[in-house]
Amino acid sequence: MQNLELDHQIPQAFLDSLQKRILAEPQKTGIMICGHGSRDLGAVAEFSKLSQAIAQNLPDIPVDYGYLEFATPIIKTGLKNLQDQGVTRVLAIPGMLFAAGHAKNDIPSVLNTYAAQNNLQIDYGRDLSIDTKMIRAASDRVNQAILKAGDHISNDDTLLMVIGRGASDPDANSNVQKVMRLLWEGLGLGWGEVGYSGVTFPLVQPALEHAVKLGYKRIITFPYFLFTGILVDRIYAYHDKVAAQYPDIEFVKAPYLNDHPLVIETFLHRLLEILDGDNAMNCGLCKYREQVLGFEDQIGLPQESHHHHVEGINDADSHNHSHSHDHNHTHDHHPYPHADHPHGPNTLDSDIA
Questions:
Q1: Could you tell me the residue ranges of all domains in the chain?
Q2: What is the CATH number of domain 132-253?
Q3: Burial of 9 by CB count in 10 Å (0-12 exposed, 13-18 middle, 19+ buried)?
Q4: Which of 57, 167, 296, 324 has CA 20 to 30 A from 189's CA?
Q5: What's the CA gap between 184 and 125, in Å, rounded?
Q6: What is the pLDDT along the chain (353 residues), one digit of tens a residue?
Q7: Rg of the chain's alpha carbons, rounded to an integer?
């Protein structure tokens, strides 16, 4: 088993170099952390804490944050706060694991609109993506679960179920498969599988029900999520439901990533990429630019935000907009072509979903 790195310290030499680099820019430069937002107050608090950790590591640089929807401050508020501090150039990074619609469309639309209306230069970075630091952080979380469960079941008899958020973007979904493979092989576990909390397939329950057929004595469910929230609660609820049906198998919950030091370090490296001009996302598998199998009709679709009407709203009863992140999603996104897959969105239970 690998050593846990929860006490990992971000190299001070790297922090000093990054801060010096930003301060040397010809324009006064600030940092903007762009989140999705959540109705879950715990998720909002965790995102705020992570943003503050980034600021604490760069004490001489203005740092702010904001959300697309369902929480305050909104992104525009954070940008205005930076301008009020004299910032004329912003390094903006999406607080998201992978580049799907929110990172590719919605956040850039908000940033570009604000930049044009307020004479502000905004340089946009990329998602956390597949990164060795992120994999090390994820392995820590899985190892935490193994240590807590005990060594009475070997790694050879353990199946790892990595649960991603699920998106209508196959590029983002495929990244979860790669994370799983890197963890499975790196930790030397018996088997690895993938499920998703919504939108795509297989969802959590059918994924776990398939996993139990493989004959492993222990199944670890690991939500590959940054923060808590409704979706993480849903994942654990399905985990408990399937576990109750198979008492002879040990089901173990691994914690999500949260503010692991290596997650924070990855964010800081994304800032350096912007400064180096090496911040391009992977467009080779982007469904808006290439003929991705099954999504060919989405090439060239307008890339604009659909979140302006829910900015700052965090009360589900305060508006009549239907914004579900599952098969009932009516947020003006292009329809997911496999919504009726037998292991996909239509398998959600009304009492859990």
A1: 132-253
A2: 3.40.50.1400
A3: exposed
A4: 167
A5: 29
A6: 455 777 789 999 999 999 999 999 999 999 999 999 999 999 999 999 999 999 999 999 999 999 999 999 999 999 999 999 999 999 999 999 998 888 988 999 999 999 999 999 999 999 999 999 999 999 999 999 999 999 999 999 999 999 999 998 899 999 999 999 999 999 999 999 999 999 999 999 999 999 999 999 999 999 999 999 999 999 999 999 999 999 999 999 999 999 999 999 999 999 999 999 987 654 444 544 455 444 556 555 555 555 555 566 664 344 343 333 343 444 455 666 666 777 667 667 767 76
A7: 20
